[in-house]
């Protein structure tokens, strides 16, 4: 058989309304709805090549040959594609993230979004973006959202199917996201493991299940109304509620630098800047800031001890296939 190949790129996304915890049963469906913004300025690029000469799937991640759990997760996704396309061949995956991997910057979101799109296209399947998103979500729930650009909701909870859909275009809010990188290292507890432990032992998990849908609805309405400060205020609440719930299970993703950066975000707000903080499952603080305040906020955050560098990102587009000429550059 000849080789079948495609290259895709995708951006990570930051949840304004967090999900944390999985619903019972199959399919990796979140226990609560969530709402994110896709971030241009950080990118995963992935090439998938089905090759009849390969004995097994191979994954090169950031230039290093990778096996174990990352390869098993990627292979499981490829199996779904192979089944639908009637392909037996194993695949070579070559992927790179231009930001720290497995560190709390949503590499699983852009990683599995790019992988799903590249695999589907390499196999010659003509799937809708919603179907590709569903495939990506089964590998990492946040990845379902990165197929779409702008502001994206992922449903969750009883009766939900784990479907992602666009809520508003990237220009719906005058938003910049300053990603304060506080380490280049991978985290000690993966998101998947952190959630499972939280569900099992956090005394606050039932309260989180009650609160998260309310926060998500509030944030959706504020985005649609173009109400920047309400989006920011509730995004900060959502992040802190999620971390409080995880901390009660003994899982601490924040570091001193995270909290110092959050304190600076709040000090800037007291000084009249439109800045709000959010934190995913890792020690990096993301500052949500109105475009006109971004330069001033970046200068102040860069002086916070423990902030190594700042990635300037803004609402961006969903995953896309790269034309051959661009992909080989
Ligand atoms: P993060 O906070 O970066 O999303 P997670 O614990 O959710 O961290 O997921 C990290 C895992 O996602 C990695 O161990 C790997 O399995 C997968 N991953 C990250 N980047 C890629 C990529 N570019 N291609 C395929 N899988 C990836
Ligand atoms: C804190 O989607 O990475 O970023 O489905 O187990 O791969 P898995 O988890 P993942 O968890 C993301 C959690 C979060 C909140 C969010 O993105 O909504
Ligand atoms: Co992740």
From TrEMBL:
<comment type="similarity">
    <text>Belongs to the diphosphomevalonate decarboxylase family.</text>
</comment>
<dbReference type="GO" id="GO:0004163">
    <property type="term" value="F:diphosphomevalonate decarboxylase activity"/>
</dbReference>
<dbReference type="GO" id="GO:0005524">
    <property type="term" value="F:ATP binding"/>
</dbReference>
<keyword id="KW-0444">Lipid biosynthesis</keyword>
<keyword id="KW-0456">Lyase</keyword>
<dbReference type="InterPro" id="IPR029765">
    <property type="entry name" value="Mev_diP_decarb"/>
</dbReference>
<dbReference type="InterPro" id="IPR036554">
    <property type="entry name" value="GHMP_kinase_C_sf"/>
</dbReference>
<dbReference type="InterPro" id="IPR020568">
    <property type="entry name" value="Ribosomal_Su5_D2-typ_SF"/>
</dbReference>
<dbReference type="Pfam" id="PF18376">
    <property type="entry name" value="MDD_C"/>
</dbReference>
<protein>
    <recommendedName>
        <fullName>diphosphomevalonate decarboxylase</fullName>
        <ecNumber>4.1.1.33</ecNumber>
    </recommendedName>
</protein>
<dbReference type="GO" id="GO:0019287">
    <property type="term" value="P:isopentenyl diphosphate biosynthetic process, mevalonate pathway"/>
</dbReference>
<dbReference type="InterPro" id="IPR041431">
    <property type="entry name" value="Mvd1_C"/>
</dbReference>
<feature type="domain" description="Diphosphomevalonate decarboxylase-like N-terminal">
    <location>
        <begin position="10"/>
        <end position="159"/>
    </location>
</feature>
<feature type="domain" description="Mvd1 C-terminal">
    <location>
        <begin position="177"/>
        <end position="285"/>
    </location>
</feature>
<dbReference type="GO" id="GO:0005829">
    <property type="term" value="C:cytosol"/>
</dbReference>
<dbReference type="Pfam" id="PF22700">
    <property type="entry name" value="MVD-like_N"/>
</dbReference>
<dbReference type="InterPro" id="IPR053859">
    <property type="entry name" value="MVD-like_N"/>
</dbReference>
<dbReference type="InterPro" id="IPR014721">
    <property type="entry name" value="Ribsml_uS5_D2-typ_fold_subgr"/>
</dbReference>
<dbReference type="InterPro" id="IPR005935">
    <property type="entry name" value="Mev_decarb"/>
</dbReference>
<keyword id="KW-0443">Lipid metabolism</keyword>
<keyword id="KW-0067">ATP-binding</keyword>
<keyword id="KW-0547">Nucleotide-binding</keyword>
